[in-house]
What we know:
Elements: E1 7-17, E2 22-25, E3 30-33, H1 42-48, E4 56-61, E5 75-79, E6 92-96, E7 102-111, E8 114-118, E9 128-139, H2 142-147
Antiparallel strand pairs: 1-2, 1-3, 1-9, 4-9, 5-8, 6-7, 7-8
The structure holds zinc ion.
Amino acid sequence: MKITKDTIVTMHLKVADGKGQLIEASKEPMACLIGGYGNTLPAVEEALEGQEAGYQVTLNLTPDKAFGERDEALARTLAKKDFPPGVKVGGQLELREGDGEFKLYNVVKIKGDTVLLDGNHPLAGMTLKVAIKVVSVRAATAEEVAHGHAHGAHGVHH
Ligand SMILES: [Zn+2]
């Protein structure tokens, strides 16, 4: 079966930075509903379109094809005294923005009495090498399409 909109692709993914340094490798394959549901990067969906089980590819994705450029406006500081207790470096914190929306920040560093936060995706600004190996392809069920994600083995369980 060919990969197209509303198919479930089970695949192994390996993500490295532009120098080939491994960032993330899936131990288990992941099941992904294809068709613009935001389950994987559009560039990955584009590369898989029309392919079948057994297909392997390594993509070189510039930041605009991956997680975007860094937005330095999202690198913020907060006085340690205003910092909620229990949040540590490596943790996350939700802050209310000027427009009243909440935005998730990663706690990057504590420096003296200042806490450095970064609201960028951890992979923003990076060129990524994404190695993909397609294990299997099947048609999505109507329920999966309605939910916008894969169920069953290696998918969402609920
Ligand atoms: Zn579901």
